[in-house]
Amino acid sequence: MEPRLGIQLQQGCAALRLSLDARQQERLLDYIGLLAKWNKAYNLTAVRDEAQMVTRHLLDSLVIAPFVTGQRCLDVGTGAGLPGIPLAILFPQRDFLLLDSNGKKTRFLFQVKTALGLDNMTVHQARVESFTAAEPFETVLSRAFASLLEMVQGCRHLLAPGGKILAMKGAYPAHEIAAASQLGAEMVVHPLTVPGLDEERHLVEITLRPGSRQP
Q1: At 61, phi and psi to the nearest 5?
Q2: CA 125 to CA 75: how far, in whole Å?
Q3: What's the rounded Cα separation, in Å, for the pair 83 and 215?
Q4: Which of 35, 103, 134, 144 is the most exposed place for a label (fewest CB within 10 A)?
Q5: Residues of the chain with pLDDT under 50
Q6: CB 73: neighbour CB atoms within 10 A?
Q7: What is the model's pLDDT at position 89?
Q8: Single pTM value for the model
Q9: Rounded to 10 degrees, what is the CA torsion of 39, 20, 114, 5?
Q10: Distances, alpha carbon 20 to alpha carbons 28, 78, 140, in Å
Q11: Cis omega before residue 195 (within 30°)?
Q12: Phi-psi category of 43—alpha, beta or left, where left has phi over 0 and alpha has psi -120 to 50?
């Protein structure tokens, strides 16, 4: 891995006020190396340049770190492992379950888990609507996975009482917010700034009111 990528990651994390040790930084860069390697055959991401991967994948995932709470976190429609893998590396004391219905992508995720020794990360291949867990999750994450309405409909059975859904979006999703609010979802939208990225980013923090109606 090129030294410039390590410097880019360090500077980005400093801008986000995140403190990572040397092992965590190494694992994040090793993940990018694996992603770039597997991407040639598996087409996991449209981003090909590793420096762009640091910005668009690592820092774009780590920017939501202050909003992640609880012990059990679920990354729905994780794809190549975003934001789940970067957050699992950042928070080794929390448990992350990465869910995706695509077998090609989950094979890659298993490889990453093994190669990086991520004992706090579990991978499941399933659709979220049919997925059941032994215990609910305090935080359910998604990055460009589905509309807010679909997130609430598909994930509410997996959410612990008082838990929240964190939906990562680009531009402010006004129409999606209006639709999801009809299901008893309370939403707070946080504008995000990703170091090195001159594009809109928003995080929609969703909680469900007690007794809110099912879809």
Answers
A1: -85, -45
A2: 12
A3: 27
A4: 134
A5: 213, 215
A6: 26
A7: 98
A8: 0.95
A9: 30
A10: 10, 23, 23
A11: no
A12: left
Q: How many CB atoms lie within 10 A of CB 97?
A: 22
Q: In the numeric block, which tokens belong to residue 39?
A: 């991407």
Q: Are 47 and 199 in contact (CB under 8 A)?
A: no
Domains of the chain: 65-208 (3.40.50.150)
Q: Phi first, then psi: what are they for 124, rounded to 5°?
A: -135, 140
Separation of alpha carbons 24 and 162, rounded Å: 30
| pLDDT value of position 215 | 45
Ordered DSSP codes for 106-157: HHHHHHHHHHHT-TTEEEEES-GGG---SS-EEEEEEES-S-HHHHHHHHGG
The rounded distance, in Å, linking the Cα atoms of 13 and 41 is 30
